[in-house]
Amino acid sequence: MFIPFTNQIISAAAAGLIAHWGYFVHGERDLQAANIARIHILAAVVLPYLKCQLEDLSARQAIRESFILDTAYVVALFISIVFYRIFLSPLRNVPGPFAMRISKLVHVWTNMDLTLPNCKMLNDLRAEYGDVVRTGPNEVTLFGWEAYYQIHGPESTCERSAYYDILHPMVSLDTTRDPVAHASRRKLWEHAFSIKALDQNLSLVYEYADSLVEQLHKRLGTPIDLSLWFEYYSFDLMGMLGLTIDFKNLREGEHPILWLWHVAHKKLGALNYAPWIKHLLMGIPFVERMKYYHQFMTWANDELQRNIQVSSAPAEHGGIKKNWNWILGDFVLVVAAGSDPVRQVLPCLIFYLLRQPSQLALVREELGSIDIRDYHAVQRLKHLNACINETLRLNPAVPSAGLRNPPKGGMTVNGTFIPEGTTICTPQYSLFRDKANFVEPEEWIPERFTTRPELILNKSAFVPWTIGKRACLGKNLSLMEIRVAAALTLSQFDVEIAPGEDGTKLFTQATDYFTTTPGPFDVTLKSRKTA
Ligand code: HEM
Q1: Of 84, 188, 381, 441, which has the maximum CB count within 10 A?
Q2: What is the pLDDT of residues 162-221, one digit of tens each?
Q3: ipTM of the assembly?
Q4: Mind telling me which CDD domains this protein's record contains (predicted)?
Q5: Is residue 473, in this structure, part of any structural domain at all?
Q6: Residue 531 has pLDDT above 80, yes or no
Q7: Where is the binding site for heme, in residues?
């Protein structure tokens, strides 16, 4: 069989167009990334072999011709994709940076720059392009309170976007994209977060906060990274509460798994914006960037195996084996979702209080008026609560995540039609710093939550635990952790920024990879009490 080479080139280019129009353009392909790569590599290897066999070419010539055909295929495919994204996509009229229309890789690349976290980058785009910005070939970022409620509110029928397959094949309450599975799992979790369960956790929260204070007392006068110490506290506490594992970060220094979690998170964080890259890398052995993630997962797997020997999954749900991806996913969720957000609030809160000594004095006055061992009294401290809220407003734990897809048939938001399959981003960071919602939005003014309510223009815009069917389950627990640790630390220590520091690394070195991880906060401590 002989086909003229020119016709072969035309056929290869046509195959590229067919691949785009027949396959790639029809929906999400993130989870198939590794298989797509495998099929293409296989085709590239088989083609020269077939050419040798069928056309009687020398190996050298077969490879040369195959290379030309591969190039024709790839060029046609990519030209078609780029043309579609610029001129034909249903999002073509939505304003946004030109490069972001063409590829999500631009977003990934931008987020490799640690000096500009994703939430700030998106906020800058709003200033340039308005309330609806195209931030990817198939993604829009929406600003404003109405859009947030439309996407996340109780009436919303939006579903989680491809980003949430990030743990695939594992799945957790916080990542499942199946609304039915989510609703039934959430019921199980709600028991664990009920007020009754919370009261049972109280003594453990005090125990770990006491352990933190004890360790800090041993380090008086020497510079320490308070951000890290708060992480030890929240990680140890979540380990014990959620997993019954004592990580002993507080007593014995950083547990290897915490270190591993940090590295894996840093290495993979920027890839969140194009989930297919992670799924592709997962399919390739020995990729350096994935090494720490694999190690973390192996640890989680082993640790869970050990843990599970003392419990059992209900047989009616198919037992442990069938539920393994869920059990492992929830296990990882507890470590990540439970620890990072609390760790984020505490050092930021102390930073603001140090910047505004009159606010610190007010909080201490409140603390002095109660028995801080009585959590119900701590819980009612108006100014402390206002300071926590104001800290969360300026530093949301999940500043730009919570990505969603519109329901079947698409939806109209802010006057723009968003077709189904589009990823929608609604950054809390921008919502909480919107001057339509808060007066002097960039300033830390706790009184807006107490004596100066006029500084809040729209109460409904303050939703750090988000709203709707997927709102945070850990709200009350997290507030308990924050209040108790803040109360004990502020009443026991005078905190000063460490020599040579100004404390701002806490913000300038923070990362926004789903949850925020704050930068270091180097301080020295002096004891306020000897008793
Ligand atoms: C200041 C602390 C915290 C804040 C501001 C916060 C915020 C949030 C937000 C915004 C979400 C929604 C994320 C999304 O849309 O994907 C979320 C989900 C969730 N959070 Fe938190 N969180 C905090 C602490 C905690 C803690 C301590 C836990 C305990 C394990 C926890 C457990 C969860 C769970 C289980 C979900 C998923 C709920 C669902 O899918 O139904 N959170 N959180």
Answers
A1: 381
A2: 999 988 888 888 899 999 999 998 998 888 888 788 888 999 999 999 999 999 999 999
A3: 0.99
A4: CYP67-like
A5: yes
A6: no
A7: 472
Indicate the residue among 88, 120, 147 that finishes a domain.
Answer: 88
User: DSSP code of 373?
Assistant: T
Residue 523: strand pairing partners = 224, 497
| Buried-state track 265-296, b at ≥16 Cβ within 10 A, e below 16 | bebbbbbbbbbbbbbbbbeeeeeeebebbeeb
Tell me the CA distances in angstroms from 158 to 73, 144, 161, 406, 417, one per residue in order: 36, 17, 9, 5, 14
Cα torsion 378, 382, 385, 391: sign: negative
Which residue has the least CA distance to atom 20 on ligand 1? 472
SS3 517: strand
> What spacing in Å lies between the alpha carbon of 238 and ligand 1's midpoint?
13
Domain boundary at 88, 122, 138, which? 88
Residues with C-beta less than 6 Å from any ligand 1 atom: 173-174, 186, 189, 242, 334, 337-338, 341-342, 345, 397-398, 401-402, 464-466, 470, 472-474, 477-478
pLDDT in tens, 355-389: 999 999 999 999 999 999 999 999 999 999 999 99
The reply to whether 196 and 61 lie within a common domain is no
Nearest Cα neighbor of 399 from 437, 350, 441, 433 is: 433
Domain membership flag for residue 299: yes
Range of the domain at 46: 5-88
Regarding whether 184 and 48 lie in a shared domain, the answer is no
Within-domain flag for 51: yes
pLDDT tens digit sequence for 22-79: 999 999 999 999 999 999 999 999 999 999 999 989 999 999 999 999 999 999 999 9
- Interval between CA 26 and ligand 1 midpoint (Å): 32
